[in-house]
Structure formats: C-alpha cells, structure tokens
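Sorry, explain these tokens?

***
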Amino acid sequence: MGVMQNLTLHTPVRIVLLALVACLLGVGVLWADGLRRADRIVEPNRLTPTQALKAEAAPGALVAAGSPADAAPEATAPVTEPATEPVAEVIPTRGGVACATPHKVALVPRELPISAVPGGARVGTMPASSKYLRASTTAWVQAVSADGAWGRVTVPWGKPVNRAGWIPLAGLRMGSTRTMVVADLSDRVLRVFRGCRQVMEVPSAIGASGSPSPTGRFWVTDRVAVPAGQSYFGSYAFGLSTIQPSPPQGWTGGNQMAIHGTNAPGSIGTPASAGCLRVSEDTLAKLRPLLRLGTPVVIQP
C-alpha cells in the first residue's frame, strides 16, 4: 500500500516534468532556428559592410543595397581632347587694302622728306601742294609705325610709280575716310567702296596697249571742273598722285594720271586712253560727292 502510494504520487510528477522538458527543448530548437534564419535576411534599407565603407569614403552619396554602385567600377581610358590649330584672324580687304577700319589721311602743310624706312635714307619728297594745280596736299597714310611717329605713303608723281616710304607725322593734322576706289584693269571697271561695302561699279576706259595704265596705290590730289574748251576730259576730273610713265608718242596733254570724263563715250569699257581712267558723265556726277582729297585709289592689273 505504501509502495503503490509512492508510485501513484511520483508517476504524475515525472510525466509533468518530462512534458515540461520536452516543451523547453522544442522552444529552444525553434528559437535557435529563428536566429539562424534572421542571420540570412538582409533588410532592404540596411547597408552591408562594403556599402558602409563606401558611404564613409563618400559622405552624402547614398547607395541602395543591391544597386549597380555596389559593384566594382569599370576601368575607363582617359579622354584626350583633339588638338586644334589656332585660327588666324581673317582681315577683310578690297583691292588688297584692309577695309574694316577707316583709311587714314594726313594734311601736309609743308614739304616733308620721304624715307625708305623711318628715319632712314631719303627716297622722295611729299610736297605741300599738288604737282600741277597746287591744291593743298592731303595724303593717304597706308600704315603707321608702332610708335605712331611715322606714316607709310606712296611717293607721289615719282618713278617707279609704286615706290613707297615713310613721312614723319609730328605736327600733321590727321583725318580719315571710309571711301576707296579700286580700278580693275582686267575687268575694265571702276568700283567704289564705303568700308568693305561696294556702293558703285561702273565701266571704265583704260590705257591702250602702247600706253597702259600704271598700277599701284595712289590717292586723289585734285578736284577740277574742266573748262568747256577741253571737252575730251569731260566735265570733271579727279587728279591722282601718280604719273603716266609711258605716254603715247607725241602726247602733249601732260603726264598726271586722273579719273575723268570723255567726249568719246563709246570708248568707255575699252583700252583706248593715254593711261587715264575714263568714265561717263553720269558716273562723274555720282563720284563728285564721294571722292574727296586724300581718297585712296588702287589701280590693279
């Protein structure tokens, strides 16, 4: 009876204890398995150790887990800009003369020496007045020295006709003009430019084969209303700062070159003159307000 009582009393206790142990073991297994699963889960918004290092190296640059930025950067070749040649400034010209800026002229009140180089040997003289009609000299200054003391000019009425030199500019009154004449002997036309813009193109007679028109850079030295008895010059003439070095045989009309009219309008546009440039009366009327003393005149082949 006592033994049976002990068995009766202890058996339920053992059963309960065994059940508790089994429960605890089951919970432990589940808990351990849960930890193992949790270790394999990567939360989308949590940085991996590699990403954390990147974030420290580049603060402010947020990198999402699994993004392409997580991968190692690809090696790229350095970009080399292609070599470029310096672009030279293009200076517009008409008749070989720069036209974007006004042409300089100088009023010459006294005779000046013309030197081969600034301050060098004398090659000519710049007179205070024109060769035949004694108009005051206003000379085209084609260039100015770097120090501003000297001006480059064509020696007026000299031989050879296109010889150039330098005059001292000290004390001279300087001016400018935007008008320039270019006489093209091959086309037998006379063109007038204001700056780089052409404002007139007209036919012109040029020197005959035995008395060709000289070429070079000259300027207007005289403006003359022609007397009625000299109609072979038309009604008006613009004297130039050069001569005809090869006048026709027996010519007695002087050797100063000019742009003038004619009493033979049919000759305009042909090689028919003693060297001068002949134009129509209508052209003379248009030229009179344009061509002032000192206006550049380029005669080109």
The longest strand covers residues 216-225.
